[in-house]
Amino acid sequence: MEHLFIEFFQNTGFYLCDYRHVVMIIVGSIFIYLGIVKHYEPLLLVPIGFGMLVGNIPVFEGLGLGIYEDNSVLHYLYYGVTLGIYPPLIFLGIGAMTDFSTLLARPVLMLLGAAAQAGVFITFLGALALGFAPNEAASIGIIGGADGPTAIFLSAKLAPTLIGPIAVAAYSYMALVPVIQPPIMNLLTTKKERLIRMEEPRIVSKREKILFPIIAFLLCCFLAPAALPLLGMLCFGNLLKEAVVTERLAVAARNAIIDSVTILLGLTVGASTQGNVFLTPQSVGIFALGAFSFCVATACGLLFAKLMNLFLKTKINPLIGAAGVSAVPDSARVVQMVGQKEDPTNFLLMHAMAPNISGVIGSALAAGVLWSFMS
Amino acid sequence: MYGLQAISASNGWAIAVVGITIVFTGLVLLSFFINQLHKILDIWDNRSDLTAWKENLFRRKVPGPAIISLTGEQKESARQFHMLVKKLDDAFPLPRLLKIAQVSGISLPHSNLAALIGTGIIKRGELGMFTWDEELYRKML
Fold first, then answer.
1. pLDDT, tens digit, for every residue of A155-171?
2. Which of A6, A42, A72, A240 sits most deeply, having the most CB atoms within 10 A of its CB?
3. What contacts A169, CB < 8 A, 6 or more positions away?
4. Is the pTM of this model over 0.95?
5. Which candidate from B7, B18, B31 shows the least CB-CB separation from A129?
6. Measured between CB atoms, does A325 come within 8 Å of chain B?
7. CA neighbours closer than 13 Å in the CB half-sphere of residue A251
8. Using an 8 Å Cβ cutoff, are A213 and A357 in contact?
9. Which of A106, A111, A121 to mutate to test the interface with B (most CBs of B within 10 A)?
């Protein structure tokens, strides 16, 4: 009987646990705390945080419990990540809940979304310089797109072993947008610039809204066919929304589908951060480069907005350039927050949504381009 | 391999430049098309105006009948030609009329005949023959 007790104890988490499990459980708890208490992207951080707890319960190999064991339930759910199934489904939902009106009203703001993607390619160079392989560098660079699904999709295709750190880095920085972006915005703009009021956008017709996803899809995917899975689903979701006659499908896409997939994605990505896999010097490098990428992307958007002001008759508030990093809609909210600190009657949210949405398209394009270069 | 050497070895500079160029091009093109979209839709909505405009344009290109007034000498010459035409069939060959005019001593027969054709008093008919528009002749003289 004593022997049975000892055997049982040796199979418990208390016995199998090492410091890496403890560290990751603490990180997971912090994620849950940030999500629930601080309201930083709760829909993402809570599933990922809990997934970290799930993934870092020490289990003995062979029982089919861990996410990296072939016969485990978590492993099957993780297929959605490794095969790149979840990200396009999330894009479907994003498309079905996004209103492109502000973008259609002033398409020139789309350039801000493009400018912010410079951060992706600059970080790609940085990762190469730090010794990462080109496919890994591309996956790390896309963190600057501030688009979790895109980062996961590209990592699944190019560097599957890095999905965990890249996904966690991407979602962490997305959640930390309100902390990371404001200092850069204040640093790179003057008070006078932050006070600029944007002109009212024109009213966009329903037909324009219906035609936009079709035109955007055809144009972007003819240019970069590798962006097809992400942009295709984004545009399809948006068409379902705007077509009105497919409202039922749009409702399913923006509620049931995206919610289910977010749960599965968050949980499995979190569970993939097992201490022994996650806590490596490489992960530290990815986190550092991810932060750099995010900051550079924000700065590029801001600076490009200032550049545009040199040529535009009607000036734009350069703060909205920071929303080009995509992180929908958090970065647009941050723009509103920073703008209102200077002038509480200045409403920038609606205008910031234009570069914000074009950032989503831009990051999907950038991912497609990088994928086609590396594959 | 680290640093600039690693970037060069992986063709990083080219990938970064071409990559950002493609992303920019894509969004610039999209921005351009979207900017034109509402204008194209406006034209489509008002396509009946466009059709009318095209028809007007086409009509303007068709030359209307030239309004040429005759001088006193030309009117006198027209009267003489009128008398000669009466001796001919309804449809007559122009060289014959010209020859008769020359024989009859009508001054400047080529020039005056051209003026009559210009006013439409002498009209081109079928099979290379010409006819005299009596009504117009009376109206102009």
1. 999 998 888 889 888 88
2. A240
3. A143, A151, A286, A287, A290, A291
4. no
5. B7
6. no
7. 5
8. no
9. A121
